[in-house]
Each structure stands twice: as C-alpha cells, then as structure tokens.
Amino acid sequence: MSNVATEERPVADSAPLPPVTLKQARLPRWSPPVFALGALAAGAGIGLAAGLDSKIQWGLIAALLFVIGTFAIAVKVEGARQAKDRLATSLVWIAFLLAVLPLASLIWETVDRGKKVLDGYFLTHSMGTLPDAMVGGGINHAITGTLQQVGLATLIAAPIGLLTAIYLVEYGRGKLAKAVTFFVDVMTGIPSIVAGLFVLSVWILILGFGPSGFAGAMALAILMMPVVVRSTEEMLKLVPNELREASLALGVPKWRTILKVVLPTSIGGITTGVMLAIARITGETAPVLLLVWGAKTINNNPFEGAQQSLPLYVFQQWQQGSEASYDRAWAAALVLIAFVMILNLVARGIARWKAPKTGR
Predict the structure, then answer these.
(1) Residue 138: which of 279, 317, 321 has the closest Cα?
(2) Percent helix, strand, coil in the chain (nearest 5)?
(3) pLDDT per residue over 34-63, tens digit each?
(4) How far apart are alpha carbons 248 and 251 in whole angstroms?
(5) How much is the pTM?
(6) Nearest residue to 59 (alpha-carbon basis) of 27, 11, 19, 93
(7) Residue 271, SS3?
(8) CB neighbour list of residue 251: distance below 8 Å, 6 or more residues apart
(9) Taking Cα atoms as reference points, which of 284, 272, 269 lies closest to residue 343?
(10) Which helix (H) or strand (E) element contains residue 343?
C-alpha cells in the first residue's frame, strides 16, 4: 500500500460578516413631541412670512408639515413599513385634535362669558316681572322646569324601553319582534320637532289639554325611548348564555332568571345607557318650545300651565338681543353644560362601580 500524500492548501482570509440582529433602528420616544413643536414653529413662521392672520391657517400648515416631516424622517431611519405606521398614527392624532379643539374652544368661550352673572342669586331667583333688557334675574324657574320635565320623561321612557329590550332579547321571535325592531330604528332617527308636533296634535289639539311640562315630558320620552331600548338590548346580549342555561337547569322560571340573573349582571351598562339618554334629551329645545311655551316665573306644577326649561331659556334670552340677556343666556348655557357633564360622569361612575370584577 502506498501512502497518499495530501497537500494542505491555505485557506483564503475572508472578511468578518456583520452581526445578525433582529432589532431595527427606531426613533426615540421623545421624537413625536419634538417634531410637533418644530412643525408648530415652522407653521407660525410660514404664516407670518406669508401674511396670514388666522391662527387656524397656521395650525393647518403645522399639521401638514408634521405629517410630511414625520413620514420622511421615519422612512430614512426606520424604513418604509414603520414609516407607514407613523403616518397613520399622525393622521389619527390630527383628526383627534380637529375634533377636540372646537369643543374646547366652545367650552372656554361659554365659561368665559357665562361666569359674568353666574352666582348664587342667579341660581336661586327667576325672571319674575323683570324686563329682559334689564340686568338681574335668574334661572331658578328654568332649572325647576328642566328637572321636572326630564324626570317625568325618564319615568315614562325608562320602564317602557327596558321592558321592550327584554322582550326583544329574551322572548322576541317572529313578525312582532321584527316590527318592534323596525319601529325602534325609525324612532331613533326622527327629529325632535316631529315628536313635538305629534304630542301637540294629539294632546293639545285633539284632546284639548293646554301647554304644560308634562306635555313636553311626553315628547322628550319619545326621543329617549329608542336610546334606552338600543343600549339595554346591547347590554342584555352581552350576558353569557351559560348563566341563563345554568339558572334554567336548576328549575328557575325564565322570568325569575331574567329578574335575578340577567338584569343584575347587566345593570351597570343599562344604567349608563339610561343616563346617557337623559343627557341627550336635556338639551332639546324644539318640543319644549311647542308644548311648554316657557314662563318667567316658577311653576312647580308640571301638569298645568306653561313652564320654563334651560335650553328654552337660553334661546329666548338670546332672542331678546340685549347685553343683559346675552349674559344670562351664556350663564344658563354654562349651567346646562355642567348638568350634562355631571350626568355623563355619574354614568361612567356607575358603569365602573357595577363592572364585573376581575382577578381573584
């Protein structure tokens, strides 16, 4: 056997490969606020240089620069895919600001003008025999009327809406349920003036009753009812069917299952829906103008005689056109906004209080 000699060949030196990493270059977290400040400064500079007086135009220019600048820098640093995500995020933030700024401006203007006459005297006195052009007067009669009318509307609409939603979810089958659903959908979209005209034609013109807070409450109940039905219906659908089946398997009747299992489980959402429906009807003016007419003195009887309400008071005071009436209108509008905000906060508090507990 012959030994086979092998030659060792030198291995050519090769350049080291770059380290493989899954991390991608990212912009720091503070970059969006810095880009926004830079865009605001650039927008203000361009607006001044172009002679634009409107701050809104400056803001639109700044928003455009922010979107373009953020997208361009993100493409350079993070790549096209992450840049598209940055673009979508920027557009969402701009849309949010466009929606919030008018609301914030409205609240600021209402607070600034309404605080001139808003005090204890304004809240505890009515207009009485005071002429609308003179300084003084208050909104006690409007607050009383609003609370009574909204309270009566809630007493009418909440039980009917709750029972209708229970029927649609728990019992509704066939043509009757479809017809009820159809009419609820139709009622959701009717204008408030139509509800006022309906009550006016039936209650006042046909039956012969006069204007009163109760007539306005019936129109407000018509507007409130479909909101209660829809919100309650959605809350009842969220209750797991396993809870119903477990109760029925123990021999509990269906009506008792609904009363003791389904409703307590969804009571937080139902209450929130009712509170939001109350907030929705509190600012209605058209049906109140047709059916309640408005009064300058306090009327504690909602079933007889004209009454006042906060939205109607704002409309009538603004209609007078004097400086004193303008101040009273702004102050009443501030009270109305505060009332609606309190209702929304109460609704959120009840929803959080009654929310299902998580964890052990």
Answers:
(1) 317
(2) 70, 0, 30
(3) 999 999 999 999 989 988 888 888 999 999
(4) 5
(5) 0.82
(6) 93
(7) helix
(8) none
(9) 272
(10) helix 323-353
